[in-house]
Write a structure and sequence with these properties.
By secondary structure, the chain is of the alpha/beta class. The protein is built from ten helices and eight strands. Helices cover 46% and strands 13% of the residues.
Length: 253
């Protein structure tokens, strides 16, 4: 059975870059160029239209992918991506830019809980994290194929290896302790803090998970990998998994 092509929207306010990325999408067998847009307003209108057209079969645009340049005039792709996910929660949004930046990676994947209005549950809504960080200089069909496989087919996050290499250079040969590495490896496997505490033997007198020592260890890992943000932000854990896998040499170049 042949997989259905993945619909793709490309957003870039520089016409030559927009045309180039659209051409690469068109040359990638698994992808189907749905539209190209040169502004935030045009993109929002397109997504709203596609959601209406797909209202019966796929109103959230699940299985679709948006590729957006970071810089969009006076706006940027990260803010646009979050706005698009409010309209079409099933959309997978990947940001591309020219240069690797660990600070930008933190912003792309950020999912901090937002403060709700008075009387509302302030944990009920959170700005959605985006799904990928690509580099424009690496754009070609095989690269786009890998991005689509990761973020659409596997529902995982994508981060360019060059961004991770940039982080590793900043570490300048620093090493995790064996205990820190054990904890990071378990986080990268997707285990919860409760499960990690049990695996690592952090137990209280009743034999239940003792979260204090574990939280200290996790905090050390965030500091080691220079991952900032609020403790309530699940996006930090995503970045930590990527960073540790790169550190451990598990992620292919």
């Amino acid at each position: 059975m042949i997989d259905a092509p993945i619909p793709v929207i490309v957003i870039d306010d520089t016409p030559v870059k927009l045309r180039g990325v659209c051409e690469f999408v068109g040359e990638t067998p698994r992808l189907q160029l749905q539209a190209g847009a040169g502004s935030v307003d045009t993109t929002v209108a397109l997504i709203e239209r596609f959601c209406q057209e797909q209202a019966r079969e796929n109103p959230t645009l699940a299985g679709w992918m948006a590729l957006s340049d970071l810089h969009l005039g006076t706006d940027n792709g990260v803010r646009l991506g979050r706005k698009l996910l409010e309209i079409a929660p099933g959309l997978r949004v990947v940001i591309y830019t020219q240069d690797p930046s660990w600070t930008l990676a933190t912003e792309i994947f950020r999912q901090e809980y937002a403060r709700g209005s008075r009387g509302s549950d302030n944990r009920s809504k959170k700005p959605p994290g985006l799904h990928g960080y690509a580099l424009f200089g690496n754009m070609e069909p095989s690269y786009l194929e890998r991005i689509a496989t990761t973020v659409v087919s596997r529902h995982e996050t994508f981060i360019d290896q060059e961004v991770l290499n940039y982080l590793l250079k900043r570490l300048r040969g620093q090493r995790l302790t064996p205990r820190q590495e054990e904890c990071a490896a378990l986080i990268a496997q997707g285990l919860s803090n409760d499960d990690i505490a049990l695996r690592m033997g952090f137990l209280n007198a009743q034999g239940k998970p003792n979260m204090g020592p574990l939280e200290n260890l996790v905090s050390e890992l965030y500091n080691f990998f220079a991952i900032e943000g609020a403790p309530s932000d699940p996006g930090r854990r995503v970045l930590l998994a990527h960073a540790y896998e790169a550190y451990a040499g598990l992620r292919p170049a």
